[in-house]
Design goal:
The structure is a homodimer.
Chain A (H helix, E strand, L loop, with lengths): L2 H14 L4 E2 L9 H9 L19 H17 L6 E7 L2 H12 L5 E6 L2 H10 L4 E7 L1 E3 L2 E3 L15 E3 L2 E2 L4 E2 L11 E4 L16 E5 L9 E7 L16 H6 L9 H17 L1 H21 L5 E2 L11 E6 L5 H10 L2 E2 L10 E4 L6 H18 L1
Parallel strand pairs in A: 1-15, 3-4, 3-7, 7-10, 10-11
Antiparallel strand pairs in A: 2-12, 5-6, 8-9, 11-12, 13-14, 14-16
Helix pairs in contact in A: 2-7, 3-7, 4-5, 7-8, 8-10
């Protein structure tokens, strides 16, 4: 049997297969086309007779995957030449430690904006390595969660860096602007929003992102770091987590998570094919607006408590005004093929995550389900 | 089309597919049955309509994978109840830093046996965190590499731990005995030999193993640690790499490398099905003896330079007596479907790695090729 026959067979299966719309905050729904490609070549990548999992990380074969993935990140985000692109093991939380370990040097102090649970976790971990300054916290406007404007932030001009979280998955809060850090290197945890809007990388000192939302599978983290911020690591940083060491070795100092790296490569190739970051900016805008509009127009039944100026396009938390109905909603949604709509345990309620892998049809299906649910219980 | 039709289709394809015998030292050849199963359920795990990559790490579904994997490690290695089993991001080299960070406490000194490149790397990394004592080095006997007997080691009874590497992949050296650390916790890097022979876990304080040889794909590391060695972490250890924190949270403190964890689960289920560690001890013995015997009987053409008392069953380095023929050997072997036989760049020559995923038929094919090669060029 030729590979093309296998492909036809898988194609037929995938047309009929019961795939769900998965609204998980991450590990998240991946583009079906990417999964299908990975499945097809799972045992026999490019007719090598091997799975990508089985090939050595030092050879030409993996080298090609690694270089192509890096080149695609550079192209998709227009990463300037004076930035290194690293592929590191673990997730973003590991970088919560590695940012101070790699950047603080002798200064031992940095600024952190606290807009939610993830930025607060980064701040708390930072405080284990130095004296961190919380420059601000979320406030309220018109009874809704609101990111205070920058003139209210208490920035420290002597800070080693300013850390913030452009998108908070739990509260469903997103910056639609980039803070002006006044020359202090800006460090951004883009785990839950990377590749979903155009950015000007030159505004940042460090961008980092765990892969399991818009970049593939859990277990690998993308770090984009400006050259002049390398070489400042503390003597305590594990060698393989020293950004300088990994930059020098193109992230191949030790065995990297090769399969996760490959999956990121497939996701990025797909991202380019769909039209790149500009296209996903459009899609994210459209998908999230559709759902917010639906919720806002039914405020007596569904409610979102984030101010429109800082609503996340990626994670949309909402509640039933009658919260006792939440378990029924979740059970029936799952039956309808809409999974992982439960809100984070610290936030309660419901949440729909609309990463790049979620097609607009998923949002339509969710709204249709919500309408039906409201009709029956409203 | 029903799943069973897809399965038939994949089964037919896999019968005809050109799979190679992959002698890579790691990432290594995986059991075909494991890859086939992962491929079949790649887009639709247990009829959930999701890939394992897409399911949340906090839910019941992943919880089942996590618990089963842990239970299988415990069963396969008869891990006593007073040992925790952790699944951590990254590979064994990350543990080179984490061992001192998690164990040293105030003492700042430990013992390391240096038997090759990997144990030396662990020692060097250890020295960044304390004053490490090299208890011994490789020696020679009858012109061959030889692990000195323990009475020649310079052990320090005040050491926090004694670290050694039961199998060195580059030199092809293996301990066929367990050092007596006289009450000092014994720490073993079993990356390249775990699950290939019966061990008595109670002889060890810590066992750790990167997954990409006998446990699955790169990007996850198994750590088995005795309860009383937890809770000693230095203030510098990143929170998610603190063994105590991860033990408390069953390795789910943060998003773990879920897919790599799942693959480890499949490999362990397969390991059990084949007959467990005892079976692989037998197979490893048989496969390696066959190849060593073949090489030894042709010493004018092929040569292995390790003393029989400490030859590795997992990694068999050998050379052509006429080393100028090495590139020809490698090229022709690849054409014959025998890949990754090149020795490590620091060792040169050739190397055949015979992990659990390498069937005996692979060794037979290699010997047959070597015979043919010798006939033509000998």
């Amino acid at each position: 049997m030729k590979s093309s026959v296998l492909n036809q067979c898988l194609d037929r299966e995938n047309k009929i297969m019961h795939r769900v719309f998965n609204f998980s905050p991450g590990p998240a729904m991946l583009p079906e086309a990417v999964l299908v490609q990975a499945q097809k070549e799972f045992l026999n990548w490019r007719e090598t007779g091997m799975s990508v999992m089985e090939i050595g990380h030092r050879g030409e074969m993996f080298g090609e995957i690694a270089e192509k993935t890096e080149a695609d990140v550079r192209e998709l985000l227009s990463v300037p030449a004076n930035y290194q692109i690293l592929f590191l093991p673990g997730g973003a939380q590991l970088q919560f430690s590695l940012i101070p370990m790699n950047l603080l040097g002798e200064k031992k102090s940095a600024d952190y904006m606290n807009t939610g649970i993830w930025s607060k976790k980064a701040l708390d971990e930072g405080n284990r390595y130095g004296q961190m300054n919380e420059v601000g916290q979320m406030s309220e406007r018109e009874g809704k969660a609101f990111i205070p404007p920058q003139e209210e932030w208490r920035l420290n001009s002597a800070a080693t860096y300013l850390h913030y979280t452009p998108n908070e998955t739990i509260e469903g809060i997103e910056f639609h602007w980039v803070p002006d850090s006044a020359g202090v290197p800006l460090v951004a945890d883009m785990t839950s929003c990377i590749m979903s809007r155009k950015i000007d990388v030159s505004q940042f000192g460090v961008i980092y992102a765990g892969a399991q939302k818009n970049l593939g599978q859990a277990g690998i983290t993308l770090v984009i770091v400006r050259d002049d911020l390398l070489g400042r690591a503390s003597p305590w940083v594990p060698t393989i987590l020293n950004w300088q060491t990994q930059a020098t070795h193109h992230s191949l100092y030790n065995t990297p998570p090769t399969y996760a790296w490959y999956m990121m490569g497939l996701v990025l190739a797909w991202t380019k094919k769909q039209g790149g970051v500009a296209e996903f900016e459009k899609q994210s805008q459209k998908k999230s607006e559709k759902l917010y509009r639906y919720i806002d127009e039914r405020e007596g039944f569904y409610v979102n408590r984030v101010h429109p100026s800082c609503r996340s396009r990626m994670n949309i938390p909402f509640s039933l005004v009658d919260e006792s109905m939440t378990p029924v909603f979740l059970r029936e949604a799952a039956t309808a093929g809409l999974t992982y709509l439960k809100g984070h345990r610290l936030a309660g309620g419901l949440r729909a995550s609309l990463y790049n892998g979620m097609p607009e049809a998923g949002v339509d299906a969710l709204i249709s389900f919500m309408s039906d649910f409201m009709r029956r219980f409203g």
